[in-house]
């Protein structure tokens, strides 16, 4: 057995995989939220529809998309595996005591937070990603060409109160998940230093607030300020 295989079969190696996939998904979130900001553009959805078409047809983006899907699956699988190994290593639970001061809500509940985010992700992919790739969506024509009107699908979805509530609540949980996961990933990679760790923690907390807040603002903006399509866009 090679040292590479031994490393990635060890608990440390599995945590390393969790850290690397987590950081990659953080980069994905930056790109995703940046593109989705086009929903705020007052052009009837043209910029967003052109962006959505580019993201589903460009070959380089498709490679990044596959990498993202694999990263999500690996991140989930290894989180379950690590949780199982931790419980097996400690079959008898410790006596219930007050959580230590250095233990945050996020660090104690990463499994629950991740599960809720996974449920949200399934709803999100079914409602938008699957529909964009294989669903019957009405098309719209601009000077630049003919595109699937995903913008109308998004606007229609976010006229529904429970859908808006689901997205906002899920983003709150994502914020908690990121608030621990961001700094934890750097620590797992050994990139912690008394000089830089405070900055990493600060950036992590800021990221965990700003990015989920931007995502949550989109359904709220659409619900309160954009009228629903006259007919279903699919």
From TrEMBL:
Transmembrane segments: 16-40, 60-85, 110-130, 150-176, 202-226
InterPro entries hit by this protein: Cytochrome_b-558, SQR/QFR_C/D
GO cellular component terms listed in the entry, alphabetical order: membrane
Keyword terms: Membrane, Transmembrane, Transmembrane helix
Protein name: Succinate dehydrogenase
Organism of origin: Anditalea andensis
